[in-house]
Specification:
Distance between the termini: 68 Å
Order of helices and strands: HHHH
Number of strands: 0
Shape: elongated
Helix content: over 70%
Number of domains: 1
């Protein structure tokens, strides 16, 4: 029974990893691609690791350590990538209305600034 549950959780994780890849192809700009790839791949990786933990309980501590590093490094790396993309002025999608980082860096960019 634990093999079936572990396999289902791994399959669910693989679905989220697949959706991360689709998100990278379908999103309009670098910022939304980073967001789609990071969120879905983090969840997919955690689910795959959880499924492996169910499937092989003796690996649980090692898998928990790996999951901790995934949860720590994925958001940090996506933040660094998006800040770098913003710093080199990567174009945003035409539908983007607010650039909060630009507004925070340049107070004269506010509409109400005098």
């Amino acid at each position: 029974m634990s093999e079936l549950v572990g396999s289902i959780v791994i399959l669910l994780g693989a679905f989220f990893l697949f959706s991360a890849g689709v998100g990278l192809l379908r999103m309009p700009d670098v910022f939304t691609r980073i967001q789609a790839g990071t969120k879905a791949s983090t969840l997919g990786n955690i689910l795959v690791l959880a499924g492996l933990g169910i499937y092989h309980p003796d690996w649980s501590l090692k898998l928990l350590i790996i999951a901790y590093f995934v949860l720590l490094t994925n958001p940090l790396s996506s933040h660094a990538l998006s800040r770098a993309a913003h710093a080199i002025r990567s174009p945003m999608a035409r539908t983007t209305i607010i650039d909060a980082l630009r507004d925070a860096d340049d107070p004269s960019a506010d509409e109400g600034a005098t």
